[in-house]
Amino acid sequence: MKEKINILINIFTRVVTTIFLFASVYEALFVGLGVTFTVIDVWAIMFIGLICAVCYLPMLSDKVYSKGIMILLQIVYAVIINAVTLATGFLLHWFNFKKPVAVLSFELIIIFVYVTVMVFSYKIDSDSAKEMNKKLKERQ
Questions:
Q1: Is the CB of residue 13 less than 8 Å from the CB of residue 52?
Q2: How high is the pLDDT of residue 81?
Q3: CA 82 to each of CA 86, 111, 131: distance values in angstroms, whole numbers, following the listed order
Q4: 66, 72, 78, 79: CA torsion to nearest 10
Q5: Can you give the pTM of this predicted structure?
């Protein structure tokens, strides 16, 4: 149980950190350095991180899923995250559907953050697994 809570905390912190990083770079490049995040923006970003963590719970099940089911779970997870992020962004006026370029930019940021967090998490998990296997071999 402790390990699953740690995974959820890691997902939350990675998502929130990555969103702040990419949003800050995007705003600096395309809007200007004078842009600030409001408290509502900060809470919304943390809400998105929380949703990302909570929606990951089915993948932490002790049940062993087939590769096809895991792919389906990942797709559903990505769609939920995308929908929640788009809805949050629309409600907080982070973009406007009347400006297709703004919607596309926002969607690209969502995808980029999602892929970055997944690749980063996979790399960390892979390195941890290699380290554990190395220690197991040393004990034998």
A1: no
A2: 94
A3: 6, 8, 33
A4: -160
A5: 0.82
pLDDT at residue 127 in the model:
75
User: What single-letter amino acid sits at 59?
Assistant: M
Over the stretch 105-139, which tens digit does the pLDDT of each residue have?
Answer: 889 989 988 998 889 888 887 877 788 788 778 88
Which residues lie below 8 Å from residue 54, measured CB to CB, with a gap of 6+?
8
Measured CA to CA, the distance from residue 59 to residue 82 in angstroms comes to 18
Distances (CA, A) of 48 to 53, 104, 120: 9, 19, 18
Give the angle 104-25-100 at the CA atoms, nearest 5°. Answer: 15
C-alpha span between 132 and 128 (Å, rounded): 6
Per this entry, what is the length of the chain? Answer: 140
